[in-house]
Design a protein that fits this description.
By secondary structure, this protein is of the alpha/beta class. Helices cover about 35% and strands about 20% of the residues. It has an 8-stranded mixed sheet, with helices on both faces. Strand 12 and strand 13 form a beta hairpin. Helix 9 runs antiparallel to helix 11. The longest helix has 27 residues. The termini are far apart.
Length: about 500
């Protein structure tokens, strides 16, 4: 077959720019067999055909290798190709995997890429084949399915004509399909569902998602799960506890703040506690933001979504751990009653804070949240997650969350969990000078330093002022990774749900 004739029935697309998903497919498992007719997707490496692709090519008399050569398909990650009907196959798709797949992350990427490609096909059933017989990863089919469920996510509920879900099937071919299915359903689908829950929360507009409705969505998500208790502190309860920082942030909005506490008891003992910044919309308050890009500030509750989603994942897969999510929920708006620059608030810890910018509000709600976490739960581990600063995005882009901690061992554990989960972190310093930068002339502390230097570190330092030295604590600044302007194989454009997988993996590795 000539390259010219191949080009008539083949098309090439980069995954990041591929068409949006037409419909989500149900995921099934079936015995490994690339001889069955229908629509099939196989992986191709940068070093040529291997595994199922080679087997398919032999069955097709070399047509696949000729197509790859004729269209100069390099097999690089992020590259995909759709081929037309080939000797009994209605369609054949190729997904690039570069130099090969060495870990679970590569398998998830393959599954996500396959799902995104299959979403553009009209076939009722599309199979994805990967030779899992000599796999270094346990139950690779389960990881492929996990990636597929993440990769085909979409948020279209406000479209006038939303596309129907569940149209068709993505069939994962595996040597032991029953075992792969069991692994996926019990260990990985609950995590994928939790990531999608977090993405839904972050994607919602602020007129639909505010503190009260965040609580309602959370109650619905956890309904029926064993070992779960949900508590909600309203403004009256927060005033009794002295949470002046959290209340101050929310006082300019008609949407009253809430402190949401979700406890999952899958084991006895002190819990791991995850505290999340939940600013359901951040206008900046009186220190109002520029209008350009302000629409995206609906995502400023991504930390709260991540920690709530992480506990949802743990409860869903019945992890043997005691875990708590605390979501500090408020809307930061300018109004006659809003907090002003120059105001002084008293936190639950009894320390006072001078407000120099009402747009540095996330650290304020977390000051009360982390103090509450320590006083209420005496946690064995405390991690706060927040879209805290623009400076961390400048430093690390959309590739890493900023990690701050005083604990080297904990830093190593989080770094490992992030790499294994596909949600990497980069440790940044907590320099002693940051404490001096936030000294106040009239209060115990001020909420910004007054300079543009080390903004992410100063924000972390502020939160750390409310964490006792004996508490194992880390701060994750996810401002650069909670939303993507361009999609990946497992995180389509928009809300990523970053943090759910990382925290779940951390618990898998070290705390259950």
């Amino acid at each position: 077959m000539s390259s010219r004739s191949i080009a008539r029935w083949a098309s090439v697309a980069l995954l990041a720019g591929a068409p949006a998903a037409l419909a989500e497919r149900a995921i099934e498992f079936a015995p490994f067999d690339v001889t069955s007719p229908g629509a099939l997707i196989v992986a191709v490496g940068s070093d040529g055909l291997g595994g199922p692709a080679r087997e398919l090519d032999e069955r097709l008399g070399g047509a696949l290798s000729r197509a790859v050569a004729g269209l100069e398909f390099a097999g690089e990650p992020g590259e995909s190709m759709t081929l037309g009907a080939l000797e009994g196959y209605t369609r054949v798709g190729l997904v690039g995997i570069g130099s090969g797949i060495a870990d679970a992350g590569g398998l998830r990427d393959l599954g996500g890429a396959a799902a995104q490609l299959a979403a553009t096909w009209p076939d009722e059933t599309v199979a994805i084949a990967w030779d899992d017989s000599p796999a270094a990863v346990d139950r690779p089919g389960a990881q492929i399915a996990f990636g597929a469920l993440l990769g085909q996510y979409r948020f279209d509920k406000f479209k006038t004509e939303p596309q129907a879900a569940g149209a068709g099937v993505l069939r994962v071919l595996a040597r032991e399909p029953s075992a792969a299915r069991a692994e996926f359903e019990t260990r990985w689908r609950p995590v994928a569902d939790a990531v999608r829950f977090a993405r839904d929360l972050v994607s919602e507009p602020a007129n639909e998602l505010y503190p009260e409705t965040f609580v309602e969505r959370t109650r619905a998500a956890f309904e029926g799960l064993a070992g779960v208790e949900i508590e909600v502190l309203d403004p009256s309860a927060m005033r009794e506890l002295g949470m002046g920082a959290l209340l101050g942030v929310g006082q300019g909005s008609r949407r009253e703040p809430r402190l949401l506490v979700v406890s999952y008891r899958g084991a006895d003992g002190p819990p791991v506690v995850f505290a999340g910044k939940g600013i359901t919309f951040d206008s900046g308050g009186i220190s109002i933001k520029q209008s350009a890009g302000m629409w995206k500030m609906k995502y400023d509750m991504a930390g709260a979504a991540a920690v709530t989603g992480a506990v949802l994942a743990l409860a869903g897969r019945r992890a043997r751990v005691h875990a708590v999510a605390i979501a500090a929920l408020a809307e930061n708006m300018p109004a006659a009653g809003a907090q002003r620059p120059g105001d002084v608030v008293r936190t639950m810890s009894d320390r006072t804070v001078e407000i120099h910018s009402t747009d540095a509000e996330g650290r304020l709600v977390l000051a009360d949240a982390v103090w509450y976490a320590q006083q209420r739960f005496s946690p064995r581990l405390l991690i706060d997650v927040a879209t805290l600063t623009g400076s961390v995005r400048v430093a690390l882009g959309e590739e890493y969350a900023g990690l701050f901690t005083r604990d080297d061992e904990l830093a190593a554990a989080i770094d490992l969990a992030g790499r294994r989960a596909g949600e990497p972190v980069w440790r940044l310093p907590l320099h002693p000078s940051y404490a001096a930068d936030i000294e106040s002339d009239i209060a115990d502390i001020k909420n910004i330093s007054g300079t543009r230097l080390a903004g992410a570190g100063v924000g972390a330092q502020f939160i750390g002022e409310f964490v006792e030295q004996t508490t194992r604590w880390a701060h994750l600044d996810i401002a650069g990774v909670a939303w993507r302007d361009e999609g990946t194989s497992t995180a389509p454009k928009g809300a990523t749900g970053y943090g759910v997988r990382l925290l779940d993996q951390l618990v898998r590795d070290f705390h259950q």
